[in-house]
Amino acid sequence: MTRFAFTVEYDGRPFMGWQRQAHGPSVQQAIETAIHAVTGETAVVHAAGRTDAGVHGIAMRAHADVEKPIAPFRLMEALNARLRPDPVAILDCAVVPDDWHARFSCVGRSYVYRIVNRRAPLTFEQGLAWRVIQPLDTQAMHDAAQLLVGLHDFTTFRSAHCQSASPVKTLDRLDVAREGDRIAIHAAARSFLHHQVRSMVGCLAMVGMGRWTAQDLRAALEAKDRAALGLNAPPDGLYFLRAAYADADTATRT
Amino acid sequence: MTRFAFTVEYDGRPFMGWQRQAHGPSVQQAIETAIHAVTGETAVVHAAGRTDAGVHGIAMRAHADVEKPIAPFRLMEALNARLRPDPVAILDCAVVPDDWHARFSCVGRSYVYRIVNRRAPLTFEQGLAWRVIQPLDTQAMHDAAQLLVGLHDFTTFRSAHCQSASPVKTLDRLDVAREGDRIAIHAAARSFLHHQVRSMVGCLAMVGMGRWTAQDLRAALEAKDRAALGLNAPPDGLYFLRAAYADADTATRT
User: Where do the catalytic residues lie (chains A, B) (predicted)?
Assistant: First the structure.
């Protein structure tokens, strides 16, 4: 048995999310089906983050165990050939120790959320960004975002379906940057609650629209109550960006 | 009668190109149909550039004459509502003088061509960039590109269907820049021949792969013969970026 670590890029639009579902296609299922086609084996693919329906992956990390002797490069090429026409691509494939786990060994996760701030509907970015019509004050958003950085009880920013043992998390980074009508929000933490990034982005958008002050955001955080949430941003603009591991070399080798 | 100038963004994937065609959908037809739905009028939409099938627009400029009295902002909003679900968006709409012409008044055009330089298939960029598997030496591409800048007979880089009176054009800019596995090639000129950007990009890719030297590119240019072309890049990565007009204020006002 060999454990392979993958770096995966995917377009979340046609999927019900990362995780295998009874009622529709998932990224996990697409990769597991490809592994079966290549090896004849029924492998289970574990990921650093289980993204929701419509959320995308730029460099998701995942792993699976394979019995068949095969070189990482050949496995990657074979999987990419079998994944077509699904919009899922294996960018990197490496052999990792048997105790390396894409989810449990992961010590840092980062997301980017993309907003297009304009009136006109999206064209080639339809489903790949959140269009916000109201002009957003990104400096106010960035400043308010810093209130969320650090150790907090993020109950307000947590989905009712969140399975995390605790709502207390340390947010390492929440940056808002604008380039023309494109806004990118970068978030990094050891781990996130379900819907946390989208909920934080939604509330920052409230600040950017001038409907909330930074103080309103602070009050929402301190309420520790989902009902205090201003807005949950749609999945369209959310991308799982990167996963970090303590042993850097196992995470990057092909 | 009022002449309106539009700035148009579009995803070229579902279209046979900008220009109205008997055998399939076009961006021009989509906008003309929307104008008819809004005004009841049969307007003709003229564009700064008539992009090919699969080529995209970031800020194409166009114009049309409308009899119905309507404010630019209202016309833009109504057109965008009618254009759905086609991936075409009016980003800007302004009243211009009756002799302003999106094509004939245009004094400068720029394109960007996007390459993703990696082995893995594309996911959310499928149809929006050219994937090149071979590692490309972008510095060699940029250096070679400078041989094409200036006044030249671009017959080698011209489609057999090109309707331009002369193959002699002045290329103002051809820059190649890399950011990670993303390569952007910017091209600017008063006007381009049919397929010129894609033909130049294809030959620069030959240089980047090491299959051509800069001297081979110069020889291809000097051959003034379509048969000397190394490679025509696919439409997927090509975006009409911007059109320039002598009277700057007519081109930017909403």
Answer: 52
